[in-house]
Amino acid sequence: MLRNYFKIAWRNMVRNKAFSAINILGLALGMGCSLLIFLWIQDELGVDNYHANGPHLYRVMQRQFSDGKIDAGNYTPGILADELKKQFPEVIYAAGYTGWEAQMTLTVGDKINKQSGHWAGADWFKMFSIPLLAGTPATALNSPTSIAISRKVAEFYFGNPVAALGKSIRIDNKNDYQVMGVFENMPQNSSDKYDFLINWQDCVTRNPWMKEWGNNGPHTRIMLRPDANVSNLDAKLKPFLRKYNKDIGKSFDAQLFLQPYPDGYLYSNFKNGQQDGGRIEYVRLFGIVAVFLLLIACINFMNLATARSVKRAREVGIRKVMGAVRSLLAGQFIGEALLFTGLALLFALLLVFSLLPAFNSLTGKQINLQTTQASFWIILLGMTLLTGLIAGSYPALFLSSLEPVRVLKGAGPSSRLQFGAGARLLRQGLVVFQFVLSMLLIVGTIIVYRQINYVQTTNLGYERENLIYVPVEGELGAQANYKTFKDELLRQPGILAVSSMQEAPTNIGSSTGGITWPGKDPNVNIEMTQTAVGYDLLKTLKVKLAGRDFSPEFSTDTSNYLINEAAAKRIGYKTRNGGPPVGQPITMWGKPGKIIGVMENFHFQSLHIPIAPLIMRLATEPGWQTFMIRTQPGQTKQALASIESVWKQLNPKFPFAYRFADDEYQKLYKSESVVASLANYFAFLAIFISCLGLFGLSAFTAEQRTKEIGVRKVLGASVGGIVGLLSKDFLKLVLLAIAIASPLVWYAMNQWLQGFAYKLDIEWWIFALAGVLAIAIALLTISFQSVKAALMNPVKSLRSE
Q1: Both 736 and 608 in a single domain?
Q2: Under a CB-based contact definition with an 8 Å cutoff, are residues 186 and 193 in contact?
Q3: Are both 93 and 239 inside the same structural domain?
Q4: Is 96 part of a structural domain of the chain?
Q5: Where in the cell is it found (predicted)?
């Protein structure tokens, strides 16, 4: 019997080639896109989840209560890790880790190259499942001069990992470190990426401020005993900093808490001190999109199968007369759906295989089809069965329910089976549902594109075009060489201005509460973002200024300060003419000085965050700075050649490296840009697949009304009139879908925009544009069948009468 059913299904498929091709295409696109999204979600969920000690690994986080605000993040004191091991028996291992990436020059003999790395505590390799190719977890980072390097670095400098062990590496042409460990290259599914690690004590020695409990910045990772009570430890950590930090009091409080280590990647956003999403929102979003695409494809199959059901009605009637029961008939039609789905899966896999390289390039992933793993095939089988059952359920239940008397009473071959209102409403409801989903994707795509375009093109308050970042390193760290380099660059053609800054303008993250002024409420702790800069910075960035910039003509500028408008507003100085508080006293870290200039607010972090109060001090040492170099428009290539030439003259032992300000800014919105691109593709596919369903329903309707169309033509109806008659019912469905989708998508996108401190409004014309697009696409789809039906010779449709 099963063999007979398979033959019937295959013959029907071959006999109706166009119908079969549309069905398989729709299912293949839906399944292929859903599979791509599933692979992406699986990769996202797998980040940081590969460590053997994963259930016991935690990030130590901090909440700060000050100035009426609650901030939370993974910034902690640099000496916290060792103290936690001493104070809490639940903590087996603890390690500090620099959240900031260090680009350093590594030299071995005549081999010189830049590598990116971090500093980490001695327990690092005991905590994390990072395979060591040479060395042991206990010794890899056990002394201040220890360095652990990746396989890639070991092969570049020493030929192989084993040969690297015990050898010396010079960093930044200053200090020598001994290779005590070689680890496997960091996997793609790790949020921590580095080519080398240096012992934590070396970092503390370089940065004396890290020894103070009141200064935060580094990260702290811990591993707990398997029997540790996490809730109890969390409660004990909450007041932990109060006995170490003398600044904690009525005006300021800091509390530690734990976050499971794997959660740090997906749940990185905090609002009012509480976890508030992160990348997990995109995982959920695309999970919903995958389900929607699969549902749209399944609905297509239902509509197309129903459109062809009039051809199968008599087959069902005859089978029932011959004794077939409903369950067997339903099983046959579900089997046919599974056959379609199985064939669609083959095309879906081909589609995924073809698109995966481009998909990886777009998302920055290294996803592969895990064809050697049983779980992959189990998932494919589950997807195929689920899709086939959903797609075939309605046609199977509908056709198997037909009564033999009803379907066989028509005498002629041209008689048509008329279905009830319930079946018609269900099919129309499915089309409305499809177009609701399509409208959600169309409007969502437009809003995401506009917002991303806005943040990428908005005026930041400084000009990022023609601005180049070059690290201050090597010989240029000396004051005399720094000045020589700057003066020499200013003599080169195409270079307009040169200055330096502690961090790039898009990454100023250090803050302090150590700022006071006359009249400040001693019971209120006010945090301000702070950075150190060189001369001529505001001229180089082209930031507007009231007052003056730092100048070598004023020796007292080493104790003077620049602030932005947000800081001036928070300080609240009252001036006679209501102008900026230039010349007013201010003290930072116990060092009194004056405000010499007030900068116009500029964005120094992501547009997700409001502009915070900012204070700048003059850098007394050029080391750990970054050159800001302003070039002449259109002369970037010549300027880079000039900079490299001067660099090689003054700093020959360090490879020349640079970054464009534009590129650095774009990195802030990499996730949003990827989401925008994927949304574009998925919106197009959703619309395309939905149109296949609309095509099926219009074909069904035209077939049901063949005789009516013939009669109308005989009575003088025009082709345009008949096309309008057949189209208006579908347009009603599309309009209904637009009305349902509009408030839903407004709410969803408004929630998404709340993640931006600076955002565009959702305007009415976006919904109008999306509605017009949906109507136009629907009309184009419907018109094919409508015109075909309207042009049919009425003699053919009426001759059986």
Answers
A1: no
A2: yes
A3: yes
A4: yes
A5: Cell membrane
Same domain as 438, residue 356? no
Residue 771: closest CA among 725, 740, 726: 740
Judge whether 563 lies within some domain. yes
Q: How far is CA 712 from CA 725, 790, 795, in A?
A: 11, 10, 12
On whether both 587 and 478 belong to a single domain, the answer is yes
- Same domain for 383 and 448? no
The residue that leads in pLDDT, 27 or 614, is 614
Instruction: Name the residue range of residue 600's domain.
Output: 474-653
The per-residue pLDDT for range 249-299, each reduced to its tens digit, is: 666 788 999 999 999 999 988 888 888 878 888 888 888 888 888 888 888
Encoded tokens for 303 = 């509509």
From 611, 630, 653, give the residue that closes a domain. Answer: 653
- Do residues 698 and 785 touch, judged by C-beta distance below 8 A? yes
Instruction: Give residues with Cβ within 8 angstroms of 40, minimum separation 6.
Output: 286, 359, 363, 365, 367
Residue 348 CB neighbours (<10 A): 27
Compute CA distances 755 → 280, 607, 677, whole Å. 14, 9, 19
Q: Cβ contacts of residue 179 below 8 Å, gap of 6+?
A: 135, 147, 148, 149, 154, 164, 165, 166, 167, 168, 169
Residues 627-663 pLDDT 10s: 999 999 988 889 999 999 999 999 888 889 899 988 8
Q: What is the DSSP string of 207-253?
A: -GGGGSTT----EEEEEE-TT--HHHHHHHHTTGGGGT-TT-BTTEE
Tokens for 501?
Answer: 């800054």
In terms of Cα–Cα distance, which of 713, 710, 732 is closest to 721? 713
**Range with top average pLDDT, 39-43, 224-228, 328-332:** 224-228
Nearest to 513 by CA among 270, 207, 757, 253: 253
Rounded CA separation 576/364 (Å): 55
436 and 485 both lie in a single domain: no
Note whether 32 and 347 are within 8 A (CB). yes
Structure tokens belonging to residue 749? 């996108």
Q: How far apart are CA 689 and CA 679, in angstroms?
A: 15
CB-side exposure of 77: number of CA atoms within 13 Å?
19
Give me the DSSP letters along 142-169: -STTEEEEEHHHHHHHHSSHHHHTT-EE
Helix H segments across 92-199? 124-127, 151-158, 161-164
Residues 629 and 524 placed together within one structural domain of the fold: yes
298 falls within a domain:
no
Is residue 308 very low, low, confident or very high in pLDDT (cuts 50, 70, 90)? low
Q: Does residue 419 register a pLDDT over 60? A: no
Same domain flag for 445 and 483: no
pLDDT band at 171; cut points 50, 70, 90:
very high
**Are the C-beta atoms of 22 and 347 separated by less than 8 Å?**
no
Task: Express each pLDDT in 558-614 by its tens digit.
Answer: 999 999 999 999 998 887 777 889 999 999 988 999 999 999 999 888 887 889 899
The two beta strands, 146-150 and 175-183, are parallel
In a domain, residue 276? The reply is no
Question: Last residue of a domain, which of 653, 686, 708?
Answer: 653
3-state helix, strand, coil in the chain (%, to 5): 50, 15, 30
Which of these, 474, 345, 335, 402, lies nearest to 10 by C-alpha position? 335
Other beta carbons within 10 Å of 747: 10
**Domain count across the chain:** 4
DSSP β-ladder status, 561-564 and 591-599? parallel
Residue 414 pLDDT greater than 50, yes or no? no
Q: Which range has the worst mean pLDDT, 37-46, 327-336, 495-504, 620-629?
A: 327-336
